[in-house]
């Protein structure tokens, strides 16, 4: 109560000093996360976890933000911390998802199954089942072709891969056309074909083919990758944004798919996002790809990590002398 001087109307001060608690910070963090302001979301969520350090919901939400920005190891540390002191079952699915993105499929499968064993009808049960299906597809992909004695397919793949990586489109096209005839079920071939067509000058046919594929398969990662690249090259940035936005929240399991997204981001001048994606890649699985060295070094340079850029470029040109003939932004 505030006493005013005599002769003036008495006023009552009902303002209570506001001391934010964990729930306030948590709510602010969620709002920032929904607006995709991840740096701000992390700051608010850290305040929430400081206010309530043992609240599993707060820690799990913090892990989700880390997952969204690709900080999978930091996310997993938080989730394991929760499991040490509680039986918060959602952690098992979140761990499974993160391990899948890291390429650790055995661990991903183990945690997805753990979630379903404890919550067969849980809120995340459908997501866990879909994740298991993706893991099974990834594990069986090579085996399916091997069982059919596809030595010829492998020879074609290796030859086309060489020409595509070296951007020798005219040499790749007739081989890809043969592949589509001999192995019509091998879907990736069509996406290689449209890319080779586009960069050899047949742009409209390439775009139409990808749009047709996307109509049949609206979630096709390869179609979004190619169409983002094609429309960017044509300066059609509204169409480009549609397809690049479809990729920004996608973190595939397969290393080759991860590389395609990273390369596409770099080729369309989204260097910061590209750099973060390249950091997540397994170099040991991709050192046979000239595009890994080409675009990772360029993304690193624009990110400001010039030392890493030069080192990658030197390593790449030593392994692939043709790269040395290409122009780079630091020349």
UniProtKB/TrEMBL annotation:
InterPro entries: TPR-like_helical_dom_sf, TPR_rpt. This is Tetratricopeptide repeat protein. It comes from the Bacteria. Pfam families: TPR_8 (PF13181).
């Amino acid at each position: 109560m505030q006493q005013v001087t005599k002769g003036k109307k008495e006023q009552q001060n009902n303002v209570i000093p506001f001391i934010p608690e964990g729930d306030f910070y948590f709510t602010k963090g969620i709002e920032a996360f929904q607006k995709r302001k991840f740096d701000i979301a992390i700051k608010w969520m850290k305040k929430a976890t400081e206010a309530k350090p043992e609240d599993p919901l707060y820690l799990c939400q913090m892990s989700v933000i880390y997952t969204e920005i690709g900080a999978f190891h930091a996310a997993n540390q938080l989730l394991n911390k929760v499991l040490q002191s509680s039986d918060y079952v959602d952690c098992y699915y979140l761990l499974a998802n993160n391990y899948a993105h890291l390429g650790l499929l055995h661990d991903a499968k183990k945690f997805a199954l753990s979630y379903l064993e404890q919550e067969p009808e849980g809120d995340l049960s459908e997501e866990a089942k879909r994740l298991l299906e993706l893991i099974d597809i990834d594990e069986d992909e090579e085996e399916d072709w091997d069982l059919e004695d596809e030595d010829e397919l492998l020879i074609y793949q290796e030859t086309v891969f060489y020409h595509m990586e070296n951007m020798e489109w005219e040499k790749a096209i007739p081989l890809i056309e043969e592949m589509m005839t001999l192995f019509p079920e091998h879907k990736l071939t069509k996406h290689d074909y449209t890319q080779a067509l586009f960069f050899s000058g047949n742009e409209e046919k390439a775009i139409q083919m990808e749009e047709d594929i996307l109509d049949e398969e609206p979630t096709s990662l390869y179609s979004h990758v190619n169409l983002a690249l094609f429309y960017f090259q044509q300066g059609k940035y509204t169409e480009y944004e549609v397809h690049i936005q479809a990729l920004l929240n996608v973190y595939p399991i397969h290393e080759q798919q991860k590389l395609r997204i990273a390369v596409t981001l770099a080729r369309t001048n989204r260097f910061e996002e590209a750099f973060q994606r390249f950091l997540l890649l397994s170099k040991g699985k991709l050192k046979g790809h000239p595009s890994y060295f080409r675009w990772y070094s360029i993304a690193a340079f624009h990110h400001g990590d010039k030392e890493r850029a030069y080192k990658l470029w030197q390593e790449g040109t030593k392994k692939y002398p043709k790269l040395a003939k290409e122009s780079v932004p630091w020349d």
